From TrEMBL:
Entry note: cofactor: Binds 1 heme b group per subunit, that coordinates a highly solvent-exposed Fe(III) atom.
Keyword Iron: yes
Pathway as given in its UniProt record: Nitrogen metabolism
Descriptive protein name: Peroxynitrite isomerase
EC identifiers of the protein: 5.99.-.-
Domain notes: Forms a 10-stranded antiparallel beta-barrel structure able to accommodate a hydrophobic ligand in its interior. In fact, this fold hosts the heme group, which is located in a wide surface cleft.
Gene3D superfamilies: 2.40.128.20
Taxonomic superkingdom: Bacteria
Organism expressing this protein natively: Nocardioides luti
Catalytic activity: peroxynitrite = nitrate
Top EC group: isomerase
Lineage: Bacteria, Bacillati, Actinomycetota, Actinomycetes, Propionibacteriales
Gene Ontology terms for molecular function: heme binding; metal ion binding; peroxynitrite isomerase activity
Length: 164
């Protein structure tokens, strides 16, 4: 699907402009403390002319035929675009986490590492992560590595999404 840059795109947002819009697709999750699973996902990045994007993601667990079994993770936040391709990502999750990420964007790639994680009293133990988003042949591919539940940083989820 063709993509056009908005007229009011803030100059700092240029390195992540390719993310704008709605993306849908499927992925896989795995972790030593979690049984492997398949999921569907929708990501939405919006922009209003200021140097940030609003981000919303929702996911659902699917069966072997891709049919929805139940709702899963929801996260929302702001991708703040600084000068020279530097970014900050603020995320809040329905599972009781708040994260601050920092990283860089360049050449259709967004590379992020957690700077801080806070969690509610009822949230599972989670200490940090790494996210990599990439524009691959016009699709959005991402990988999320996680350190949680006493485990070292390692792959947790990955997906391929297409522009809706």
């Amino acid at each position: 699907m063709p993509f056009e840059l908005p007229d009011n795109l803030h100059p700092n947002c240029g390195p992540v402009a390719w993310l704008l819009g709605t993306w849908r697709g499927s992925g896989h999750g795995d972790y030593p403390t979690i049984e492997a699973y398949e999921f569907g996902q929708e990501l939405i990045f919006t922009h209003d002319g200021r140097p940030f994007f609003h981000y919303m993601s929702r996911a659902w667990i699917t069966d072997e035929n891709g049919e929805k079994i139940r709702d899963a993770a929801i996260e929302t936040g702001f991708l703040r675009c600084l000068e020279d391709g530097k970014v900050e990502f603020l995320l809040t999750h329905n599972t009781g986490f708040v994260e601050i990420w920092h990283g860089t964007a360049d050449g259709g790639k967004l590379d992020l590492t957690t700077d801080a994680v806070a969690r509610t009293e009822t949230a599972k133990e989670y200490t940090g992560g790494k996210r990599l988003y990439g524009n691959v042949e016009g699709d959005l591919l991402y990988a999320f590595d996680m350190a949680a539940m006493g485990q070292a940083l390692q792959p947790h989820t990955w997906a391929r999404l297409v522009r809706a």
